Fold these 3 entries.
Entry 1:
Amino acid sequence: MIDSLANVLLYICFSFLMGYFFLYALSANVRPALKEADRFLKILLILVPLLLLVPVIRVVITLVQQFSVPLFEAITTVVLDYSTGQAFVLAIIISIIFLGSFPVLKGSWYSVILVFLLIVLASWSSHGAAVAGIFGFVGNTLHLVAVAIWIGILAVVGWFSLNNQNLRLFTRWFSFVAVGAVAVIIVSGFMLMSAIVPQYVQSWMLSYGQLLLLKHILFLPLLVFGFHHLLLGVRKEQSNKEKISKSFQIESVMALVIFTLSAFMTEQTPPHEVAQTLQTESVSWVMQFFLSDPISIGSIKMSFSLVPVTLGVIGVFLFGYAARILIRSFLLQKSTAALGASIFLFYLALMLSVGGNGYDMDETVYESISDAVSQTYEPSAKIDILVTEQHEEEIHVVYTVNQHELVAEKVIQVEEGYQRLPAAMLTIGGTAVAEEKQKIRTFRVQSGNWHDEHYEYTYVTFGMIQEPNEVARVQIHYEGGSYISELDRQTFLHVVSSNENWDDRHPIDFLKDNGQVIETYARNVMEEGVYCH
């Protein structure tokens, strides 16, 4: 929640900073007069690094509490090695330069460049950059800059203009700036979606996908208002200046709602692979509400029937009606209400058109376990099977991929060989497992193929212990009890289910053959996703 609120405030800061400094850099003849806001702008410049500090604090706390890293070492590591820490430090430097040279920079395009650099730093530490590297970084930067220019200028003129003078000249040039910004937003949005959400419809099963869908639907009325302002800029007749200012305010409020949705998306699991994510994250309660038969894993499909089609048609009619009365009659209240109703109907129509599509089951029968699990990877990948445990027709397998990743996966034994289960993998990545003395993780699973449907939670703990050499078995101390698991080829796997949400802390004793404790491996975190470092 704190991260989400920080992101909302950060987006607002960027928008007002970009809007104000962009307008200040222009001639006073082509924009409305603005309220004096030096103090307000300086506060925003101070807030930017403070808001970028929030993820830094979160990472430091994680290192200290979950990995027992000393506080000073954790701070140094985050500041020097993590993009969040580096972005925070550079943002402080830029803000100090900005504040120190404020009288000189105000009214100069250099101020716009410095705001642009602050946005670049925020994008550098964003999730898009973390997931998709330079592609995600560029997409996120373009997205934020375009939004800041479009919405920032709108908000400043709508809420902080002293009068409506030069409003016609303003709408004339701003309309084309807005069109360019919207084009960049759409292109960069597709860039980010291709990297983070390649399965758009399937992502609706997750909270992240639901928020993304709402964000896209809410973008439609924003486009209507933008198109309306474009027409105002090219029309020869004089429009009501008070209503123009009010429409700017409405559009900026809509943008704030979208900012809020975007910020809350940062705390959700991005569905890079929906079926994989559903192993450990429950289907969104919204999707469960609309599905006649609740599902925990698999896929969904669109199947239009009379009711959703009717709702969609009514939504299109209301949307067209709202656009018409806004553009032709400038009726702000009626058009806003009609747009709100159309948004609700669009969403309802889409949700009522969704149905379960079962499992994406690989029906191929493979001769060996190795052949089955290797299908996920490149043909050149080296798969080393370490542990196999039979549980009726299911086989639990732990293996390494190129001596780097450690993976736990389920397969099914059939008469002629083995079949793969859909999305039945838990992966420990990061540093190569062959280079670690011990690498152990616990996944808290609430749905999917690793989940025991008779219980609310399933806890899957597996890992490799290369040192100490004399470890024969481990004893895992969960909040709900202690369990022993034998080592095979320096590897173990333990699965237990419970209706209780156990505490994250679960120390693991390394035992000799005679039961003597060699050392204790401290684990203070349980993984919630299907992949961890």
Entry 2:
Amino acid sequence: MRRPTNVTLPDELVAEAKALQVNVSQACESGLARAVAEVRRARWLAENTQAIEDHNARIERDGLILDEFRQF
């Protein structure tokens, strides 16, 4: 499902985009999707940093669980 949305953009930017045949809707969607992904990634990392650090410390301290079976 898609939702019509009004977005305010600088006149010069819209004019240049049209002159270059850039699809403004697609460009806005792409930029918004990228921004959402970046924020989600940053939040996930902030929420999981301690667990990742703890896991890495355990591996440094105890080694890998099946390390004795590694053939390389």
Entry 3:
Amino acid sequence: MQASWEIFCSVVDNYGDAGVTWRLARQLAAEHGLRVRLWIDDPAALVRLCPEVDASASRQWQAGVEICRWPADWQPVEPADVVIEAFACQLPEAHVVAMANCGRRVLWLNLEYLSAEDWVGGCHGLPSLQPEGLQKFFFFPGFAENTGGLLREHGLIERRRAFQADAAARAGFLQSLGVQARPGERLVSLFAYENAALPGWLDALVQHTSPTLLLVPEGRILGDLQRWLDMPALAVGAQAQRGALRIQVLPFVRQDDYDRLLWCCDFNVVRGEDSFLRAQWAGRPLLWQIYPQAEGAHWDKLEAFLALYLEGLSPSAADALQALWRAWNAGEEMGAAWTALQDEWPELCAHAERWCARQAARPDLAAALVQFYTDWL
């Protein structure tokens, strides 16, 4: 019988934590044939990612995964063979006791946030002694060989490349969202937190010599966009034109459709962790808004990723991309950085595809987790 796995997720960043754990749970079930249970304290966060989810159900099955509401009043259940606490969420104390007393070995993993920082490799896979005599192992996703790899489904890159090579498929998908791209438009997606840098960037797009179609899925950035447009409200389907910039608000779509949106675009602005990684698999230049942390701790993570990602770029291209990322995350004026980036566009496009291929050549996160369990047995 295949091992049973359970993943605990406490929703912090709207869809980010839920998005990562839902992707991982689906992949473990679909590609590795595992029995997977996802505990989530806010099932409503999954509804937009998977509309079939019933937010009111305490227990349900979707895509081969058992989804359970993680109740504040925990009721005892039999622990799985592998227990993953995602992003340092605190397991119910009674469940930890059950893990220690169930009469078999249980692998306890703390799945950490994605980071490119140097120290990650040294901490990946390390055990930590816990109460009840259990060991908890730290599992770090990452971009280097000594980490747990990145979340990537089997055949993802091949599907993406085939889709991008099929103009009819791209046009058909965009039409399903109500989008009709015009000849010569550069397609840009924008999924972001609130950002004081937005007006300056939009002003630069308005004045650019070539047209841009900015596709904005529902999200937190809509308030800033609405103020810049000076419009009373922005709903799905809303469109506006300012100079060379055309803007269209899109619905929040399920994960597979968001992937296709990224694949359709020439440039993707993303946030947090899940969309950040999916934009890398799109093989297109990107701009990342990292989740802000207290006392500016997120800047070390941002700079660590840039140090890796910029390898292989010419000095001028590296400087341009770095300036754009720093300005965006600092909420500073974006116009000059965006203008400077245009001269480096062909190199940045080729580099994005090379980076994707390099990362895709490594074992993916789900496979690495399964291998870790096999080695632990």
